[in-house]
Structure of DUF6343 family protein:
Amino acid sequence: MSDYLPPPAPPRSALTLRLWLAGFGLVFNSVAGWLALRADLAWLGIVLLLLAVVCLVDFGWVVHRKRRGDTG
């Protein structure tokens, strides 16, 4: 019998998960903020749109780190 074990699968990058979460947060907060503004809930719309900006910055930073070659 052979004791051959296949090589382990490469680990998934935490940066990829963070990229997906930032993208989801960007889309969700943008749409929810726009809907809140349309429903005359200005304070909620502004908070959600500010969170969308934070997600956009995070998305850009993660893309920068992945292009630089960080493993996360």
The longest helix spans residues 42-68. The radius of gyration is 19 Å.
